[in-house]
Amino acid sequence: MENAEVESDILRSVRALLRELDGHHHAFQGERGMLRWTLHKKMDRNPLNSAILVKILVKELERAEKGDYRHYIIPLLHTLMYTLIKAPCISDDLYERVYDFCKKLLTLPKPYCTIGLDYAFRLKIERVIPGVLYQRMIISEQSLKSDPYPYQERVFIFADADVLSKAVCNSLVTEAKAAQMYQNPRSCMCYVITRAVQAALGEDCDVESFQRILQNKPTAELEHCFRQVAAAVECTGSEMNADRGRHAERLQKIYSMVLNSSAGGGSSPGGLHGTPLPNPNLSFHLWTDEDQLWKELVLFVRPLSRTCEPDCLSQELDNFEIQDIVSDCDCCEQTRFSVLSTDSGIERDLPAVGEELLPPSSTDVEHARLQRKGGIKKKACLLESMALLQNSCNGPGAKQSGKLHRKSDSSMVSMPHLHRLYTARIVVLGDDRVLGRLAQAYYSLRKRETRRVFLTPRLNLQFYYVPVMEGQPDTWPTQDHTTPGQMELCELAVYLGKADPWYESNINTLCHMIPKLATMPSSLSTHPMSDPFIIDVIAYYVRLGIQPVYFQIYAVKIFFSNEAQEPAEDVFLTELSAKVQDCKAPKDHMQTKKKTTLEVPGADLAVTYSKVLMSNRKKEVEVLLRSTGLVMKAIPSSETEDLACLNVNIAEVVKTSNLSGRSFSSATNKIRTRHIKIQSMEQRTFNLCLDKDFRRTYTNVVGVEVSPCLEPSYCLQKTRTMKFSLHEPEDVGLAKYMPKSLLLPINTFAGIIQ
After folding, report:
1. Distance between CA 226 and CA 220 in Å, rounded?
2. Are 575 and 595 in contact (CB under 8 A)?
């Protein structure tokens, strides 16, 4: 009877989750975004109920697949996988049902087949090696030292202090610290050992006694036991014909060894117990420096640099472009001197034996001839460097035509010899203004990597976006309503919410919830063991949000009225707006001016653009019009728009004549283009603002050119190719196969659901 009540309660929670996806959960608007979190917290408090939840989720998945409820599949599948990772033990029959369902998804279009293939691969490993997904997640997220699995991850949360209030930033810092207060390498190693043993042996182990013995062990012995467990799990994973029984025997030996090492080391089965899943290792940063993102990534990849003095570390980062990488962090102790080598490095080019300074009879002649002393460090091959840069570009390696507006795909195809041991998950908080700052930082990082490849072969970079807006109503625009004016600061989040319902349900709901929670008295200060809601949701997002949506970054070249001033170059992601400045005439001119003269607002603009056609052919258009301003939108209003283009709205001034004389009216001239050039034909200038950020405003502008931002590595290869083929209009050589446009990937749960 008790199990029936538990099952009924869990089923109600799952059905409420599905009603929220349908938009039929208006009675409890305050709970939007918390239903999934509440469901998983129920499982954390009663881990034995995880098997019941898995059964219910499998039934709902099968029902959604048979009926016309495809929009349920990905949310239910993510909920199921997160439950399987945290569950203490799941029967093989349930694993088989979930695995068979994932294989069925391979017949569906993207993103269902992509996610189904990924989860089918994980489930196949988990069935043979129970607990391997949990173990790898903890080892990488907590940066535990493990030779068999040397991968490391870190979550970087970036917030713009000019966008978010001090109260919100302090609240996030407090919650981040509270979430990691009781996390340390020792407790995480205990979690890994306990979970691996329990997943392999099931109810045949005494978990309570085992945990007590582990906690009382010295750190050195605990690390030794952890290394044994990690090696046993990865050894099974590397075998061609891995066997679950042989894996259980290995863990049984470690379990018996630990129990026998303690006095009174008898064991009696005590049932299954849940193992906590700690939040990832994360750090909170206020975005104050343009190069702050790059510096944090370098310090993550080179942790030994943190042992340097602060002044030396800052100087090392500033001079990074011209200094060699010194792996043992000897930047504080010694200086490296480079000596130019005059030989070619080829054995046949070495001088004859008779020309050597040493006598031919010397026994060390051959050894001396083949030595290379004091030479400059060999640079990577050009083709190898370009291949690394190509592999680091998001999306397929072949250059795209640019016709599709939003590419959505899984992780990029990796090169066989390229194993990135580090993964940085960048989470940005704020509105479209912070995304513009992210686009700037990403473009700067790509230019650095083009000049000198360092992070690319070592680091896997993932971007995540959590919208946060203060001082707005608690309602969020749904697909059935038009976006109100005050929500224009979160256009990209609205687009992602329409494209991915699970992102809308879990992440977009944080937009007004985070500022609201910041004003409430925090329970974390008095009860540190309280569940940190925001950090838990971010952890869920970075763990399961692996389907990126790619957004085109646009380059803009700005010309000023002062011809002596050099044109400025910048990039933007969401919007460019321009407003013609009012021309104030002198007073004496106003007095002599005839009353019949009508002052027409705006300025005459010459607009040259390439018209977007479905055939992807180029058609240049030139128009001359009078305008008071314009807005270029890079984010479409609907997720069904597939053309990669800018939507330009020009406020045109139209002169009219009637019985009362000449007058004028305003009209909106709409243009869809990828390349556009605007030039003022008068002395009037206009103000330019990028990504709705007042800090990125340009004044006294007379001209602007906008085009898709090119990938820096493509530009470098194109320049090198042009030296040898000056008359080739099309891309040749390696440039032909490199991504041309620079795209910013924002990870979601499903990508774009067609």
Report:
1. 10
2. no
- Alpha-carbon torsion 537, 543, 549, 552, what sign? positive
Rounded to whole angstroms, how far apart are CA atoms 592 and 581?
Answer: 23
The Cβ-side half-sphere exposure at 291, using a 13 Å CA radius, reads: 11
Rg (CA), the chain: 31
Contacts of 267 (CB under 8 A, 6+ apart): 205, 206, 209, 210, 259
Rounded distance between C-alpha atoms, residue 79 and residue 17, angstroms? 10
**Cis? peptide before 303, omega within 30° of 0:** no
d(CA 366, CA 362): 9
- Residue 73 CB: number of other CB atoms within 10 A? 22
Distance in angstroms (rounded) separating the CA atoms of residues 269 and 579: 75
At residue 600 the predicted structure's pLDDT band, cuts being 50, 70 and 90, is confident
Sign of CA dihedral 594, 595, 597, 601: positive
Q: What is the pLDDT of residue 391?
A: 55
- What are phi and psi for residue 639, nearest 5 degrees? -75, -10
Query: Both tokens of residue 586?
Result: 């002198």
Q: CB-based burial of residue 536 (10 Å sphere; 0-12 exposed, 13-18 middle, 19+ buried)? A: middle
The string of pLDDT tens digits covering residues 83-114 is 999 998 888 899 999 999 999 999 999 899 99
Chain centroid offset of residue 558 CA:
30
**689, two tokens:** 């603002």
| pLDDT for residue 316 | 57
CB 447 within 8 A of CB 709: no
- Tell me the pairing of strands 686-690 and 575-580: antiparallel
Bridge partner list, 286: 159
Reduce the DSSP state of residue 251 to 3 states and report it.
helix
User: What is this structure's pTM?
Assistant: 0.84
Supply the DSSP string of 609-676, one letter for each residue. Answer: EEEP-TT----EEEEEEEEEEEEEE-S-SSTT--B--EEEEEEEEEEEEETTEEEEEEEEEEEEEEEE
Buried b (16+ CB within 10 A) or exposed e, 181-192: eebeeeebbbbb
Residue 173, token pair as written in the block: 């810092």
